[in-house]
Amino acid sequence: QDFVKKRGYRWQKLSEFPGDTPLPLIGNGLDLGFDADEALLKLIKIWEKHGKQNFRMSVGSEDWLMLCEPEDIKILLNDNFELSKPTERNIAMNPFFGNSVSSSEGERWKLMRKLMSPSFQFKTLDRTADDFSKHIQSLFDILDSYEGKSPVNIYTYLKPYMLDMLSVNLFGVHMNYLKNREQPFIKTGRILVKLVTYNFFSFWRNNKYLVRFTPLYTKMQNVIKAIKQNSTNIIAQRRKFLNNMIEAKNNNKNIDMDYDTFIEDSLDGGCLLDRLILSVSPNGDPMKDEIINEEVTLALFSGHITTSMTLCNAMYMMSLYPEMQQKVLDEQKAIFGKDFNRQATTQDLNDMKYLEVFIKETMRFIPIIAIIGRQLKNDLKLSDGRVAPAGTSVNIFYNAANRNPRIYTEPDKFMPERFFEPMHPFAFIPFSAGPRNCLAFRYSWIALKATLSNIVRRYEILPGPEPKFAFRVITESTNGIHLYYKKRNTVGA
Ligand code: HEM
Known about the structure:
Blueprint: H1 2-14, H2 36-49, E1 55-59, E2 62-67, H3 70-77, H4 87-97, H5 106-116, H6 122-125, H7 128-146, E3 152-153, H8 155-171, H9 184-201, H10 208-212, H11 216-250, H12 259-268, H13 272-278, H14 289-320, H15 322-336, H16 346-351, H17 353-365, E4 371-375, E5 380-381, E6 387-388, E7 393-397, H18 398-401, H19 441-458, E8 459-463, E9 469-471, E10 475-477, E11 482-487
Parallel strand pairs: 2-7
Antiparallel strand pairs: 1-2, 3-11, 4-7, 5-6, 8-11, 9-10
The structure holds protoporphyrin IX containing FE.
């Protein structure tokens, strides 16, 4: 009875927002169709049909409010109390990433966020630009081998490249994914994104027994096994390294860095995995392996897929707009001058203003993450006085927000320069905002700029066969992104 009363109240408040009439039990579930790869396109159509504004829909027993207005997005994301993730999102993600920092709430979330944050501060990230410049050579070796022959499917190389970088930067281990691309873990990425999307958009997913009888169930179990095993290997390698240091210290052996200084460094910022391994609870217990495994799996997976897809999309857009690619190159020439092949410093990266707006426009045009949201604990009053009722899953629908006609002139046109103009601070938030924003947005900017700066200085990027984008929870092309790389004979300005 309580449920009926609450749902009735929710419906009363939600009916003030535009949306189609829901059917009993399944709500507007049929509007999403039965092909999860099509669901997002259908959501965009619903947004267009209702006047390209905030809209509501019900999917099974869940009520969604989809936001695209910056003032309302600001209210939602700045709320220090409404920090829970939507039920359907957690059901889709938890089998793979457990109760890790991006899903948890309350004490576990606070503890993890506090523990991890120092690994993503400016001071800690100082060395990161150098790491990228050093590792880029292994990517160059591969792209060079394709020179003038055939287009390269860059997904194949950019994903393991980013996995390598994250392993070094966050976990202090060299995993060499780029050199060993046949590992089962590498192949899990595509399937995982597909599975999460299917889980997210299937309104029968709450029923664990039904899910077990679907053909995807065995695939899902195999993926979970592969990603957990990979994290177990990473943690074991780093533990071995730490144990060797302790042993060296106990035996008074001469090592590069004194153990105590090393630990101090780690705890002051430094390697994310060391912070997890070395942390102790107030009663002196170390963190459980299972918890460390969940956090490593989440950081590695979400970190590599988001950054590598953004890099691939930016290169794809450069191939489509050669005159903009030239502008990116001209900026590189102005920054590096005669010393055109030197490593970029953090200051150089800051100076790459055109590259920055180019990346932003790429992220606006092809949003990597389609939807993020919060499951409301209380009613939330929006900017025009209407109320999003408690229990609703209030989502930021990036595909709509990034083409909001009240914010962007000619939203369907690719125009990096638009980001030189002042804009509402919550209009463009690819890394989210507020207390639960992306922990690694600074790291990601270094990764994106350092990698693209190196690639553009070395190659001219030309288009290959057209990609076929599927709008999954992570936007990706089902046939990869194929591009030609032609070595430049630039010697700088
Ligand atoms: C282009 C790259 C990236 C984009 C666009 C991106 C975007 C996002 C977004 C939209 C959120 C959701 C926040 C919310 O619900 O409000 C998020 C959360 C998160 N991201 Fe990223 N991200 C990127 C790269 C990374 C990388 C490299 C890592 C590395 C570990 C990372 C780690 C996280 C974590 C741990 C969270 C959860 C934070 C929390 O719930 O407290 N992200 N990211």
